Amino acid sequence: MTFSTMIMRGRHKQIAQSILSGKRLDGRGLTDYREIKLVTGIIESAEGSARVYLGKTDVIVGIKIGIGEPFPDLPNKGVLTVNSEFRPIASPNFRAGPPGEKSIELSRVVDRGIRESSAVDLEKLCIIPGKKVFVIFIDISILNHDGNLIDASAIASLAALLNTKFSNYEVENDEIKIKTGYTQLPVLNHPITVTVAKIEDKLVIDPSLEEERVIGAKLTITVEDSGNICAIQKSGSDYFNKQLILEAVKLTNEKIGDLRKIIVED
Amino acid sequence: MTFSTMIMRGRHKQIAQSILSGKRLDGRGLTDYREIKLVTGIIESAEGSARVYLGKTDVIVGIKIGIGEPFPDLPNKGVLTVNSEFRPIASPNFRAGPPGEKSIELSRVVDRGIRESSAVDLEKLCIIPGKKVFVIFIDISILNHDGNLIDASAIASLAALLNTKFSNYEVENDEIKIKTGYTQLPVLNHPITVTVAKIEDKLVIDPSLEEERVIGAKLTITVEDSGNICAIQKSGSDYFNKQLILEAVKLTNEKIGDLRKIIVED
Amino acid sequence: MTFSTMIMRGRHKQIAQSILSGKRLDGRGLTDYREIKLVTGIIESAEGSARVYLGKTDVIVGIKIGIGEPFPDLPNKGVLTVNSEFRPIASPNFRAGPPGEKSIELSRVVDRGIRESSAVDLEKLCIIPGKKVFVIFIDISILNHDGNLIDASAIASLAALLNTKFSNYEVENDEIKIKTGYTQLPVLNHPITVTVAKIEDKLVIDPSLEEERVIGAKLTITVEDSGNICAIQKSGSDYFNKQLILEAVKLTNEKIGDLRKIIVED
Amino acid sequence: MTKKPLTLINKKNIRVDGRKLDELRPIKIELNIIGNANGSAYIEQGKNKILAAVYGPKEVHPRHLALPDRALLRCQYHMSPFSVKERKRPAPSRRETEISKVIRECLSPSIFGEYYPRTSIDIYIEVLEADGGTRCSGIIAASLALADAGIPLRDLVAACAAGKVEEHLVLDLNGPEDNKGTDMPIALMPTFNAVTLLQMNGILTTDEFEQALNLAVKGCEQVYTLQKEALKARYINVKEEVEEE
Amino acid sequence: MTKKPLTLINKKNIRVDGRKLDELRPIKIELNIIGNANGSAYIEQGKNKILAAVYGPKEVHPRHLALPDRALLRCQYHMSPFSVKERKRPAPSRRETEISKVIRECLSPSIFGEYYPRTSIDIYIEVLEADGGTRCSGIIAASLALADAGIPLRDLVAACAAGKVEEHLVLDLNGPEDNKGTDMPIALMPTFNAVTLLQMNGILTTDEFEQALNLAVKGCEQVYTLQKEALKARYINVKEEVEEE
Amino acid sequence: MTKKPLTLINKKNIRVDGRKLDELRPIKIELNIIGNANGSAYIEQGKNKILAAVYGPKEVHPRHLALPDRALLRCQYHMSPFSVKERKRPAPSRRETEISKVIRECLSPSIFGEYYPRTSIDIYIEVLEADGGTRCSGIIAASLALADAGIPLRDLVAACAAGKVEEHLVLDLNGPEDNKGTDMPIALMPTFNAVTLLQMNGILTTDEFEQALNLAVKGCEQVYTLQKEALKARYINVKEEVEEE
Fold first, then answer.
1. How far is Cα B131 from Cα B126, in angstroms, rounded to an integer?
2. pLDDT at residue F2 tops 70
3. C206 near F CB under 8 A
4. Is the dihedral of CA A151, A153, A156, A162 positive or negative?
5. Is the per-residue pLDDT at F5 higher than 60?
6. Do the Cβ atoms of F209 and B229 come within 8 Å?
7. SS3 sequence, F74-88?
8. B 141-170 residues with CB below 8 A of D?
9. pLDDT-based confidence at residue E1 (cuts at 50, 70, 90)
10. In chain E, pLDDT over 70 holds for what percent of residues?
11. Which of A8, A234, A243, A245 would best serve as a mutation to test chain D binding (most D beta carbons within 10 A)?
12. Which of left, alpha, beta for E226 (phi over 0: left; psi -120 to 50: alpha)?
């Protein structure tokens, strides 16, 4: 064991003990979020945008709208795609190159929350059925990684969708003509995502990067407007028992109100 | 030289000596196949499928039929493509990633046998000349590699083609409509592929993986229904003299009858 | 420091000292080109071609013309693309694989000279506005790398464009029909590119590979027919002061006459 | 290409494949079917046909990935191009990458990885035919392949989905059910009541979620019994082989 | 999608964004905005919004790239997909590769790389919104990020473009001007009169070139003043933070 | 874009390019044409224009590929984008990968690789213009490049195709013949009667196959003579160069 490994293990022990005692090293209670800061509409080149800080975690989401073809089995629906980039600017542990498994998982979990809750009214994004539809690109960029990237990304994605406008248009002889003015993207539902982490049988909200290194497993739960669950993802190489899972769902339900307020009433 | 290298070389010597004596270590004669097992129609999601065991070598071929565009210079012909995957499930020596040179060579040798013998009636696969044709995907997956992958793949590919059905359709105003019922894929020729390996100037059929490590060169010969040769591929870093090449062709001709019986009369 | 590093450094010192004395190790003056050899029309399969030797540097450019779609914002213009390959055949320091940053920089610098001077009359390459245009592929292959690849590539590219013919055609009902005969590619301008290298505050023309290892910075300047500058690229991790930049421009203007003669009056 | 049936569950609560709401698809398991692997298993579950193989513990390539205190666990879940209706391109999709990750994480707690520091244990799952719930079938096979490879395990990992289709809670969704309804696959080490995988997409109330979780756990317990039987049969085979020699 | 204005410069020599011909866009700089980096800076210049971060000096990965006598300097200039009108695909374009190279080469002479042999200094530039002249804005931020990282510098590197738009020589071209006119970005270490970047595309006579060069140098000097102010503000902040503790 | 001629061989058994059935295309060979390479050769055969270069024996990169008992032989056959009618994309195609493999395997037996353990010998073949039979032309050049590099060879490797076009057996097929008929390229070390490459696609009876094989062997023997002449000319040049110094 090297000296730095020893120091690291000491720190890990400290974090765990502190959590067992019900208080985290940064002074938060187990189920407290770090300070959440949300700014929207910051990128003029994007049809919608939002930047979210969870403590020192810093995530920006930009929304671009293009025109493309619908999926053959959904000829009347627009297309929505979520992509995330863990670029090396945000962490010494990120590498340039195509998305790795963590980035792909994050994109897919955010996508699932939006898709399963039918947050975006995709039928309104059909231009010419079977031929032309609007394509919504949700691009998530991590700018500084200090833990809990999924929650920060989900908040920023929903806020950016709510901030999105697209050009008015009309169709004439199968040609799309852009008109003046903009229309708000039709958002029908507001999926809120909460990640609950397990450390030594305790449940913790909004883990920092340092805490994540001690965490064995996380549950990411997304809840839609009506209070129903619309997506869950367990991650990490530890397990949950049934009791803890149900507690995590309960804890999520307690938290979504505050988050929804921050995002929707922004 | 490490100890394990020494053992390996001893084993190689043993294999070579045994072949020189006309009998192989597993008891086979030089021109005996291992037990061939063929099962077809095993994958319901595929339009055709076959699985072939040559001893412990295990290869599965699935055929998918899609709709695509013809090549500009062949507007009246369907498209046929052969792809093979040497995935790491089948051998500790296979790596994930895009096909390597051995996988590409195998695909192309199987493709050549089918194409040069005009095995599939590609003109029957034209839907709208110059615009829409059926595309036949022959996908070869190696499930366990114990030598002689080309022969196993060629057998499985032909058997899978013979097992292939595709949906009936009609064309109305340049739109393709699927009708009920299926049509057998029109197979006009039955190319049979035999790989003849050279070990110390002896010719050997159906080498095992262990034998392949001793083999310097192989000739893969494909013969069509009329008895003509339609494809040859020499592989390996050793050479053949003319006499051995002609012997290999003769040996192939002796073997194709049995193989054809297994595949065609299956 | 290894022995070979010591030798290399000694050599570098020798090159630098020689240049300070106004004479290069191969006997050239500071602003002399190596022998330039240009041959055109050497590749029958290409619509245009040229091969340029600058001393031992050997570059071939082939031009292919295809049919494609115009850029949406330039519906009446043909498309021009420059690609270069630093393949391992040309140098022990080149690796197979997608183009690296030096190859990309070279392609883009050559492209810029041709594009900014409007050398090719792209409007003449429009077939059906907004739908079909000719696409000019300028492919640069380095065959032997002995320094000053950009100048060699720029000379060869312009010479190849001047050597390019494309098939006559007519449009009938939105279909393109090839007719007999060929038309010369309309070349309206002749951008000439000169790279000026800085060694110890001296300016040097046409550096050899060995000299390039000592060079801190280079300015690549492209001048069009009227004498105007149409592209500049500084490369290398050293700097220029303003005085040297203006001298480099002056030096370029002295050199372009000879180069233009070689290329245009070929 | 053909129209989907209007309902997937009839008035008698019977599903399109004849099952009851809480009934597993028929499962067939074979062990030791890939000669080159250290352990392997084949599973048929309804129309799902899946192979799993384990190579290792063995030297790690590339070496710098080796862990000083435990085995490096890697997993690749891969679909054959012909395993689905529309041919799947051979390059790994984002979906396959995600599933590979959650399967690795769900098998990890079952393995005594600390017994094999500086080695790798590589799990390969190949889906030959897919009809819903392939990650669960894949986990069932992969856990058995680990056992077949002789790797010491805390417990077998069983897996099963529950979900909601046309207002009914159902067990072990097949392809059409998965497409239309809410799917919630879980994995379980039954001896420890340890849920090692949990995913959900679709809509469930909190109550339905709890019921579905209970249903899925019951499904896992049935699967677990089948896994143990398959393992027992394998040991008997081995024993017979040894005794015959 | 909308028509471009017919002229970019009006009769009173005022540009579309209200600037005079030789006027910089408003510049806003913040330092130390990426917690994980050793140094970082954020710049807004007109509509350009760009982050730069420096990681290092640190161990080189992969190791064989390490240089025995100096630090390995690497630079990645990257545009966010949403930073431009048409969504940019995430994979690096040829343009981004070229710009990364010229930025690396323009910052290199400013760094005492020989103080850190066998290490790497990695510079990342992320363009969040682009409106012309992003390489210059990126250089301004990156040089400050190097200073913020405490890496000893011979000088700050300032950057600014000059060019020609509708027959006028102009300073610091914005997006529409860049698209229509001649653009010539330069970078300068003012203390040494050292031009470390020089690119041009468009048409200039030799005389115009000299005038544009002089104009760009003046622009760099203004930028340099702003850079030094930003750095001073940062040091004061740090000092206050330290004294507060 | 133009229609193909109806027949490739006329009634007098003369081919489209004026050759007799068993006649080689004109071959022009030059050695030592790539300054940086250890050995190189250029061949024109009909319209084929091909360069081959050899780098090595040299240190192996990456090192773990080095062989303890012999040189690592590598080969890349590559077509220039402009070498064919439709522009070829620069990335290696499956066809190029296969041809690289068979060329490597056909040159391998000619090399005393055991003289250079732990090194690599890298062969690069660049097709500048292609008109049928490029792998044979490439082999001819590559074997000479190996000799030019001073690598000890058991024999030169000659190469030539035979085939069947419009019911005639022919030697050395050009592009249009290759497209229409049966092509069978072989490579030969004449001193050993060793066939080191043999491929065929098209249709031949067993008898025709034997005749075509004999024809191709004869073609190789003619090629071999030309190869030896080229090598001799090179040695004379070298001698003269040395004596002049």
1. 9
2. no
3. no
4. negative
5. no
6. yes
7. EEEEEECCCCCCCCC
8. 141, 143-146, 167
9. very low
10. 97
11. A234
12. alpha
pLDDT at D239: 79
Pair C83, C140: CB distance under 8 Å: yes
Does an H or E element contain E158, and which? Answer: strand E158-165
Q: What residue of A is the nearest CA neighbor of E80?
A: A141
Name every residue whose Cβ is closer than 8 Å to that of residue C138 and which is 6 or more positions away in sequence.
Answer: C61, C63, C80, C81, C82, C83, C110, C111, C114, C157, C160, C161
Task: Sketch out chain E's domains with CATH numbers.
Answer: 27-244 (3.30.230.70)
Range C30-265: architecture per CATH: 2-Layer Sandwich (3.30)
What is the Cα–Cα distance from F35 to F32, expressed in whole angstroms?
A: 7
Cβ atoms of D150 and D222 closer than 8 Å: no
Using a CB-CB cut-off of 8 Å, the residues of chain B touching D76 are 88, 96
**CB of F213 closer than 8 Å to CB of F175:** no
Judging contacts by C-beta atoms under 8 Å, the chain D residues touching residue A235 are 101-102, 105
How large is the ipTM? 0.95
| Angle of the C242-264 helix axis to the C149-162 helix axis, nearest 10 | 40
User: What residue type is C67 in one-letter code?
Assistant: I
CA distances from E50 to A84, E108, E183 (A): 18, 20, 20
- What percentage of chain A has pLDDT greater than the value 90? 85
Query: For residues C132 and C177, is the Cβ–Cβ distance under 8 A?
Result: no
Tokens of B134: 């059926």
C46, C88, C143 ranked by CB distance to F82: nearest? C46
**Predicted local confidence at residue B2, as pLDDT:** 66
Long-range CB contact pairs, B235-239, < 8 A, 24+ = B235/B105, B235/F101, B235/F102, B235/F105, B236/F105, B237/F104, B237/F105, B237/F108, B237/F109, B238/B198, B238/F109, B239/F109, B239/F189, B239/F192, B239/F194, B239/F195, B239/F196
From the list F94, F95, F213, the residue facing B242 with the nearest CB is: F213
Residue B202: C-alpha distances to residues B105, B213, B215, B240, B247 (Å): 24, 15, 10, 11, 10
φ and ψ of F130, to 5 deg:
-125, 130
Please name the member of C56, C83, C88 whose beta carbon is closest to the beta carbon of F124: C88
F42-93 confidence digits (pLDDT tens): 999 999 999 999 999 999 998 999 999 999 999 999 999 999 999 999 999 9
Please answer yes or no on whether D195 and A245 come within 8 Å at the CB atom: yes
Please answer yes or no on whether B230 and F100 come within 8 Å at the CB atom.
Answer: no
CB atoms F194 and B229 under 8 Å: no
Cα gap C153→F143, rounded to integer Å: 30
Going by C-alpha positions, the residue among B234, A215, E103, C236 that lies closest to residue F216 is: B234
Interface check for B189 against chain D (CB to CB < 8 A): the answer is no
Task: Identify all chain C residues contacting E97, using CB atoms and an 8 Å cutoff.
Answer: 101, 104-105
What SS3 state is found at C221?
A: strand
Q: Tell me the sheet residues that pair with B187.
A: B120
Residue B50 near residue B61, CB atoms below 8 Å: yes
- Answer yes or no: do A234 and D197 touch at CB < 8 A: yes
Token pair of E84, please? 């431009």
Domain boundaries, chain C: 30-265
- pLDDT, tens only, E139-150: 999 999 999 999
Closest CA to A156 of A63, A233, A248, A81: A63
Q: Which two tokens stand for residue F244?
A: 């002049």
Strand blocks (E) in A18-144: 36-40, 48-54, 57-68, 79-85, 126-128, 132-144
pLDDT in the model for residue F245: 63
Which chain B residues have a beta carbon less than 8 Å from that of D34?
58, 89-90, 143-144
Q: What is the mean pLDDT of chain A?
A: 94
